[in-house]
């Protein structure tokens, strides 16, 4: 009986179990890197939001709308012995609305973080048809058409920071002298209760209406700035939006995708068309408590977000960190199984820590020089170090070259995982299967119980 062979094979069996345990232990610091990625990405997002807010925020434009107050008379109050009268406001949507938008986007930098802000020149054209009041279920309504206002609702009050210049307004082809005021202020009066003020984010101006059955044509120019995203609500019964920008990486968001789009390295163009039935909104509706549903869940547009996010890429790769630790350890183990050289568990730990620090370095460098350059730099350094270490541990330049090639293939797969969201699971699962298959093939003649290798 060959005692040396028996000891060798038994040692390899125990070594494989130990290597697996070490991979799990080193997975813990890899998960700590995952927590650091989360903290850095949160910090980057907070900085972006701060820059967005200074520029006017993520803009959502809803309108224009015509808002008209109505005095509604309902049943009597016992203590007053008179009919109850309350003021309610009703919004009327345009019969047709065309929006043409030209957007110039730039990146602003604060410390090591970038945020995209933009200047948008928005032109709105359309018309209001006959303003037919909705049916009032609990009384009769007297509309005060002389107190009608033309309003454009924004996402929040921060959006007012983004108005760059005075709005130009034409009504029925003529320049309109009245000017927009900040906010949409509505006063609700009710017998026995007094008054309540409702303030909505946006802009509004007085638009007295003499004949609610007449058509009202309008033209508006709205010079707006913002950050991160620009969206519109389908305010018109028939809404068409055209957007042109110099931003090369648009992310189309919201309830409707563009009907047509063209994206080049110089920018993009996109067109949307939302007919009346598709927008799922009535032609007129009470403002109080309802104006939010004009844009919530129905707005659409573009996010001006950089496509290269190092945090998403590193996060995706960290999900497979245990598998790649196993691949690196298996490479060393297979060298042990096919040679007389041995690697100490401490050497496995040092090798594993090198792979963990790789994720940390690629995260740190990508915040300064970009993800692709950071990955190329850190992967090259890690592969060179690991290959040289393998040549030293196993006293063989050839083993070092093989390790270098194996680690290069592994890091190539890591890069694919970092860059590919749709195929990450496929790449990861095939890699894991291939690693196990290779290990089974190389050790197929090894007698794990301690006997001789079979011929």
Automatic annotation (TrEMBL):
Keywords: Membrane, Transmembrane, Transmembrane helix. The keyword Magnesium does not apply. InterPro entries: Uncharacterised_IM_CreD. The chain crosses the membrane at residues 317-335, 347-365, 371-394, 401-418, 424-442. Pfam families: CreD. This is Cell envelope integrity protein CreD. It comes from Hyphococcus lacteus.
